[in-house]
Amino acid sequence: MQRTFFQKNDNSKAITFISENGTKKIRTWRELNKNVHKLITFFKSIKVKEKDRVVAYLPNLIETVEAFIATSAIGSIWSSCSPDFGVSGVIERFSQIKPKVLIICDKYYYNGKEINVLERLPFILNKIKSIKHIIIINYPGKKLSKSNILNKKYTNWNSIMKINPSIEKFKKFNFDHELTILYSSGTTGKPKCICHRSGGVLLQHIKEHQLHNEIKPSDNIFYFTTCGWMMWNWLVSVLASKASIVLFDGSPMYKRNDLLIKLAEEEKITLFGVSAKYIDALNKSNVLNKKKYNLKYLRTICSTGSPLSEDSFKFIYKKVKTNVHLASISGGTDIISCFVLGNIYEPVIAGQIQNKGLGMDVDIFNDNGKPIKNKKGELVCKNAFPTVPLKFWNDKNDVKFKEAYFKKFKKVWHHGDFAEIKSSGGFIIHGRSDATLNPGGVRLGTSEIYSEVEKFKEIKESLVIGQSWNNDIRIILFVIIKEKYQLNENLIKKIKFQIRKNVSPRHVPSKIIKIKDIPKTKNGKIVELTVKNIIEGNKIKNKEALANPEVLDQFKNLKELQY
User: Fold this and answer.
1) Distance of alpha carbon 338 from its chain centroid, rounded?
2) Cα separation of 347 and 423, whole Å?
């Protein structure tokens, strides 16, 4: 009898894949178990061993999940980048960990455009000499793209799926056995290779899934993510709860702004996960009306990536669903999980994250390392937790690791979020610590400004930084104006008045400047510090970490910032 990787091994669905181009694939639990065994058999045939690195340059496919599971089953170490990473970004990450196997897709689709990935392969192989084996996947529903690289030695995924798998007896590994390597954003230097431990990740994810989000067997869980973001790992772990996961690949608003909401309806989604920026964009699109959708299965909406504004909380309950648990969650790639997240037993307060994670000794410290409440300070964790990273790859004596998390407060994890704990026990994340504003020496969070600016129908998106000026810091607000509107004196006055009235006079920007686009990381996070460095004439490192580095030029030598 063949052993199964998962306890569940029937013909019910385990994974659903949906592409923006209309392709849909379903993998049953039985098929998933069988395919994982086929991959394990193949990996062993090419002598992939424990702790060898298997890397993937793939879209959000079922095959990506299967490859991750098979890699972890034999004790090898997984690492992945989504195809929206450019060649330099991929090389910079994967070259540090010297992988043995590369799994790559021939193409992917975004916003109606077909993008060739195979043409990048020669550049990758030229720079990463450790790669000995290449597996190529053709995008679901499409024929394999033609390329000169196909004259070289490689293995087609479809041929692996024809293997008669051997009967496996799974080896048990230590709790701290290496599972996966994730990467810091790399916007301030070379990306750090964050190595996570198997037992800690599984334990932490099951806790967050089952206790914080009440995920049950046969639920359908969706998170809009790519395999280059930690939320992909979080989503894959849902399979451990015998629930089904739904993968979407493409633009979340391709051809229709409510594309993902319709997906939630059609796939009977029980937990719907997106970014705070997506919720804000959905709100501004003004297309939703909860009477249009049948979301009777939907119990939980999760939001992460950046602080969720009070306005966005109200929008969800008014326009999406009234009786739903809206859980704003926050953690990071560093811990591949959450420090603060939802609580199914407590009320949801608009603008707040409900609770610290179970077993997470989270607090807010002032600069002197003392706990504070109802005041802004540094988010810390005072005791060990399951997903403290095992190490940074190639970090002798853990020098960089200790510098990153334990330099500011002795023996206390310093996360780098500027946050606040309220009397209710709820948390507010005010932004990253390194992006806080300091006019007059007073630290201010950027999230409060964003939440007010997002209320203006004229503004599509905004970015806030602090500019060094006359031995002080002045606040600069950059805005993208929607079509049909203009940034005139009247609108500038309205923005400043609203910020002054609803936040404080200290938060009012000295300058409000129109821009065409905002630089972001591959995961959609705004890079305030990068813009600050540009306008102050500092050298910018690692532009490859950005999804749109070309937009940085618009911040150089701005006349408005010269006076």
Assistant:
1) 12
2) 14
Q: What's the whole-number mean pLDDT along residues 463-468?
A: 90
Range of 390's domain?
331-343+350-431
Phi-psi region of 214 (alpha: psi -120 to 50; beta: other; left: phi over 0): left
Residue 375 to residue 442: CA distance in whole angstroms = 12
- Show the tokens assigned to 249: 């690949």
What residues are paired with 181 via a beta bridge? 195
Say whether both 337 and 482 belong to one domain: no
Cβ neighbourhood burial of 155 (10 Å; 0-12, 13-18, 19+) = middle
Which CATH number belongs to the domain containing residue 525 in this structure? 3.30.300.30
Do the beta carbons of residue 338 and residue 193 sit within 8 Å? no
> CA-based angle 243:247:249, to the nearest 5?
175
Question: Within a 13 Å sphere around the CA of 381, how many CA atoms are in the beta-carbon half?
Answer: 22
- pLDDT of 41-95, one tens digit each? 999 999 999 999 999 999 999 999 999 999 999 999 999 999 988 888 899 899 9
Residue where a domain stops, chosen among 153, 178, 196? 196
Question: Using one digit for the tens of pLDDT, what is the confidence trace for 262-293?
Answer: 999 999 999 999 998 899 889 888 888 778 88
CA distance 362 to 381: 4
Q: Note whether 19 and 127 are same-domain residues.
A: yes
Question: Buried b / exposed e across 305-323, counting CB within 10 Å, b at 16+?
Answer: bbbbbebbbebbbebbbee
Show the tokens assigned to 275: 């970014």
Cα 202 to its chain centre, rounded Å, is: 18
Which residue matches tokens 């178990």? Answer: 33
Q: What's the pLDDT tens digit per position in 286-326?
A: 888 778 889 999 999 999 988 888 989 999 999 999 999 99
Question: What was the pLDDT predicted at 314?
Answer: 94
**Tokens at 444, concatenated:** 């201010």
Which H, E and C letters describe 482-501, residue by residue?
CCCCCCCHHHHHHHHHHHHH
Q: Is residue 392 located within the same domain as residue 518?
A: no
Are the beta carbons of 304 and 316 closer than 8 angstroms?
Answer: no
Q: For the chain, first and last CA: distance in Å?
A: 77
Structure token digits, residue 35 = 């395919």
Q: How far is CA 168 from CA 5, 34, 73, in A?
A: 10, 11, 10
DSSP assignment of 304-323 equals: ESSPPPHHHHHHIIIII-SS
Of 454, 376, 363, nearest to 409 (Cα)?
363
User: Could you give the CA distance from residue 326 to residue 316 in angstroms, rounded to a whole number?
Assistant: 8
Are 23 and 106 members of one domain?
yes
Coil/strand/helix, residue 54:
strand
Q: Is 457 helix (H, G, I), strand (E, B) or coil?
A: coil
